[in-house]
Amino acid sequence: MLLDEAAAEAVLRRAASVLLAPPDGRFYERLPLVRRALLDLPAIAARRALAAFCDHAAAEPESALRAHHARTFGPRRSLHLLDHSGGDARRRRRIRARIADVYAGRGWRIGGAEPPDHLAVVLEFAARADAQRGERLLARLRPGLERLRAALAQRGTPYAGVLEAVRATLPAPERPAARLVLADGRWGGRAGAGIPAVPMQARGPEPSPPAPEPSPHGTAAADSARR
Question: Measured between alpha carbons, how far apart are the two ends of the chain, in Å?
Fold first, then answer.
């Protein structure tokens, strides 16, 4: 089954959210499901990057991957995107509260202790709750995403490929002001919504994967991972 463009973006974002999680027992239970779900996507760079990370994670010793995840996403390379976007702590708290309001407006509750700007949380919201609002959040958080992506690439970690795949699902920035909107704490301006970034390419049909299990990052009324 070849997915349409919106469904492909949802699968990519959902897969990236799972792959960015700490490599615990639940991570390894879901890893083969993610790998199989990626087979429904066209042969694009984002799919290849996520599939390559799946293969790396499956081949790497579990203890080594856990240690690498802990070293990679320390305080200097946090998955909390606002930590990379400038501004003082009070401003970041205000913006996080506004993001939480967006989630609440869609009935989305964050599980665990992650803040609302945690990349995996935003990706899950975009994939499973509200694609349009989720993409706008990702676009507005893009300065932090780009800085984190660059830091991971400089470090040479396989996680850089996951961030590259996330970046590929986003629309191209319209202008510098749209990219910097979070750097000074303002929410004005558009973020290039509606520009497709995952080109569909013809490929043969693949077997349909089983439905992924519920996510630890959040729950929503619409709980489909690939709608």
Answer: 13
Q: What are phi and psi of 118, to 5 degrees?
A: -60, 130
Neighbours of 207 (CB within 10 A): 8
Q: Which domains does the chain show, CATH number per domain?
A: 5-184 (1.10.3480)
- Residues 115-166: pLDDT tens digits? 999 999 999 999 999 999 999 999 999 999 999 999 999 999 999 999 999 9
pLDDT of res. 1: 53
Bridge-partner residues for 218, per DSSP? Answer: 110
Which ranges of the chain would DSSP assign to H, the alpha helix? Answer: 5-19, 25-37, 45-59, 62-72, 89-105, 119-128, 131-140, 142-155, 159-168, 176-179
Q: Which token pair is 78?
A: 């946090």
What string of DSSP letters covers 166-202? HHHTSPPPSSHHHHTTTTTT---S---TT---S----
54 close to 19: Cβ distance less than 8 angstroms: yes
Which amino acid, one-letter code, is at 208? S
